[in-house]
Amino acid sequence: MEFKISKGFFKELKKFIKGKNKKELEVLLNDMHHADIAEILEKLSFKSAIYLFKVLDSEKTAEILLELDEDLREKILNRLSPKEIAEELDELETNDAADIIAELSSLKKDQVISELQDEEHAKDIVDLLRYPENTAGGLMHKELVKVNENWNVFICIKQMRIQAENISRVHSIYVVDDEDMLLGRLSLKDLLTTSSKTPISEVYIKKLNSVIVDTEDVEVARIMQKYDLEAIPVTDEMGRLVGRITIDDIVDVIKDEATEDYQLAAGISQDVEADDSILELTKARLPWLVLALLGGFVSVKVLGLFGGAMTNHGNLFFFTPLIAAMAGNVGVQSSAIIVQGLANDTLSGSLFNRLIKEVSLSLLNGVILATILFLGSHFLLNVEIIIGIIVTIALISVIIIASLIGTFVPILLDKFGIDPALATGPFITTSNDICGILIYFTIARLILGF
Amino acid sequence: MEFKISKGFFKELKKFIKGKNKKELEVLLNDMHHADIAEILEKLSFKSAIYLFKVLDSEKTAEILLELDEDLREKILNRLSPKEIAEELDELETNDAADIIAELSSLKKDQVISELQDEEHAKDIVDLLRYPENTAGGLMHKELVKVNENWNVFICIKQMRIQAENISRVHSIYVVDDEDMLLGRLSLKDLLTTSSKTPISEVYIKKLNSVIVDTEDVEVARIMQKYDLEAIPVTDEMGRLVGRITIDDIVDVIKDEATEDYQLAAGISQDVEADDSILELTKARLPWLVLALLGGFVSVKVLGLFGGAMTNHGNLFFFTPLIAAMAGNVGVQSSAIIVQGLANDTLSGSLFNRLIKEVSLSLLNGVILATILFLGSHFLLNVEIIIGIIVTIALISVIIIASLIGTFVPILLDKFGIDPALATGPFITTSNDICGILIYFTIARLILGF
């Protein structure tokens, strides 16, 4: 039952925008989900999008703003006055409002804050602005339902009705003392199945996972996944309840984390999308390419060392790309498996056992691949037997060394507190290229004696 | 407030296991979260793990089973009788129970099902076994709260109390007619803030996202994320409510999807972990390596075509790994960005615009890198100016071609319904290696005329 933008719908929409038929536009879009309207805005020209945005009422546009692509949101916010932006923010939950404010210039930020109507809400938003984006404080919102341990179920439900008015999802009800110290939680289910005179102190669950404001976002994600939580309360350093993080915010953290590893493995150093500007894409891609190019210089130098072999054993040079590519591929495979193991915390056993395993694994792969290479060099490529023997030995050696580099570089980086995903992609391919070529020609020199 | 296994704790635990002190073990583990106990079991020897597992009561062990690594779960299930397994499953939600049954041999499966005590529960589990794993039917569970449109809020709350007993998380309350056709939902919040005599038909929300049993899991994930849903009802083809999917099941789908792309980009063809057996790891890694090796054969052949240049322009061959590596790196970057764009549905604009953009982008990168290469070849590598000019021109051409291949191969695969992530990793590096070398030597031949 997802909405799909049909051509007919789009044609009608454009007609209404052109004719400035506000009424018809309202009817057309009234029942539509804000995520769908955001999708429509992104498909329109900016002029049409801003017109449509201003036609819709602020309850809807606030949610739409959240769904929009960052670039389009920035453009639209630039066209709104501080007062108009404040009206949008008044409709949003605190953390969503804080996220949008954080995107504004510091001058506009202050103007917008001073225009916020609901004072409590404004205070909460300003509080949230203090926390770094990638911490529990940056993820949490202030909206939550909390009850005092001294109430009974009846008063509790009455209070909850008031508090719940402003909250889209209740999840758990947190229990605090008079000092706002977090004591435990009440589950909605328990509340539905308990008589109304029971005191809260008798029904609440004392065991409760919580995080502190400065816990890292990925750590919050890990804890929520491990304990299968849909919401987690956030306390300050003293244990006072200050906010709550819900699973939908964590889904983004999990996705971003996976995306980042993927991009690093592909040699892209910033969070970019296909539709970003050429300049942004270049900034994200060029650094790794420069690194790879400098690695390439080293490989030219290394090959130059063995240039003397060209007169009598020129065929050797035809195999350098093959050997380098295999080294790179094996290295990337090994490092990807380790990076995932580190990320999911599933690496067990000692380093020595891992060494034994990686060597056995690459010996197995190496022997199979080397057999194919030996047969291929003889029957398909028609090179001399001795060259076939050299590339075969070189391939096995290169595969073992490359897989060891691929395995231990990420482990080492992780030990030093550096993101091991940095070791995948261009870094590992380039260093393995060089090692591969060096090993190959060293073996050739030992056998052929040039 | 996450539990960390301390050395002291572990020592005590082992002592109790050795001494078979059941009482002390129960005290030690009684308050512990099942996810923590699962972690502990994975760190023990299998003998100790199975002893501990049998000491704990089945309410706890059922949840522990779910958290365990697949291998250890399989080993433990092998040691339990069908009756014992059925006791575990009676404690679990339907879809979790179905997932575990699906892992059993078909003989044991039937024995376990016949031992299930709660008949309703058993029927629901058997129903769920019919659905393929990667569909809405395979993800959903049968536990949900549903109310009839003809009830009022008072009856509704009474009924909900009964239904909620067996459900860990209520989320929404679904409204159905006498035929079980899904009509809409009641939010808990609305229920908390509505007077008890109001008829349900007046308060329920008619607009509701739902999916059909055979909707693909990634599609369910996309819809739930787009509309920011924490639960989505599942209907059969006729619109009757048959189950519900919650966000925690979707988190796994999102993670698996990201992992799969990452592994494909690294040339690993199956879902493997660092701790899998050598045979499994080889099966996942070898196919791509064989492909890369065959690609390597082609590169040897291509280089052979230009072997004549070796006598007078041997230096050219020193640059082949550099050119091949740059082609591979650029290709992987381009394809990764496109694969992500396709996955997140953020690719907009026509193919022609994308072509223009990709060419501009690679021209910009290419010119910068070529400048570095030209200067480097002269000052660092000391090759003749003419060789420097050739590699510089080749690098720009190779970068453009490689980025076009990297961009359009995934788009093409996607058009034919093939997973575009297949095009990243070894596939793109190998084909770009070959193209790069071919372009490089063709340019060299044109300029030097060998």
Automatic annotation (TrEMBL), chains A, B:
Record's keyword annotation contains Lipoprotein: no
Residue ranges crossing the lipid bilayer per the database entry: 288-310, 316-339, 359-379, 385-413, 425-448
Pfam families referenced in this protein's UniProt entry, alphabetically: CBS, MgtE, MgtE_N
One MF term in the entry's GO annotations: magnesium ion transmembrane transporter activity
Primary location recorded for the protein, binned into one broad class: membrane
Keywords linked to the UniProt accession: CBS domain, Cell membrane, Magnesium, Membrane, Metal-binding, Transmembrane, Transmembrane helix, Transport
Membrane topology: Multi-pass membrane protein
Coiled coil (residue ranges): none
Positions of the CBS domain: 140-202, 204-260
Subcellular location: Cell membrane; Membrane
GO cellular component annotations of the record: plasma membrane
Keyword Signal tagged: no
Subunit description: Homodimer.
Role, per record: Acts as a magnesium transporter.
Family the UniProt entry places it in: Belongs to the SLC41A transporter family.
Protein name: Magnesium transporter MgtE
